[in-house]
Amino acid sequence: MQTLTRTAIAATLHCLTGCAIGEVLGMVISTALGWPDAGSIALSVALAFLFGYALTIRPVLAAGVPLRQAIGVALAADTVSIASMELIDNAGMLLVPGAMDAGLGDRLFWGSLAGSLAIAFVLTVPVNRWMIARGRGHAVAHHHHHH
Is the pTM here over 0.70, yes or no? Predict the structure, then answer.
């Protein structure tokens, strides 16, 4: 039971890494371009998925899995986790008054982003735990890491 929870925490930290990279990069780009909230969120979510999948594909490819199959592994391993994290994270950013309008040099922006990612992490761990317990989610990627 503890091993399952530890695995879920590790999987969620992995997801958090890709999501955070995508979120920050998306916010930086969209802020620099003066995009509205919807464009900023769309870019950030797209980049979160891109980086999340890339972080999974890399070790799967290193294990000798062909690219097409590695992409399938990443989709199976991370889609629900990234979607959960992004939904919670972006909802958090939208719920904090002024967070989306705050500039990159503003503490409100970074505090809101850090807080919403932390909440997303806590709420996504049980999602990943449930999936891993059923041989889904990150369990799919781990199968390829060991072979």
Answer: yes
* Buried b / exposed e along 95-130 (16+ C-beta atoms within 10 A): ebeebbebeeeeeebeebbeebbeebbebbbebbbe
The Cα-based distances of 107 to 11, 92, 102 in angstroms read: 29, 15, 8
Domain ranges within the chain, ordered by starting residue? 2-145
Per-residue pLDDT of the chain (147 residues; tens, 9 = 90+): 678 899 889 889 988 999 999 999 998 899 889 899 899 999 999 999 999 999 989 988 998 999 999 899 889 889 999 999 999 999 999 999 998 888 888 999 999 999 999 999 999 999 999 988 888 776 666 556 544
What sign does the dihedral 104-109-114-116 (CA atoms) show? Answer: negative
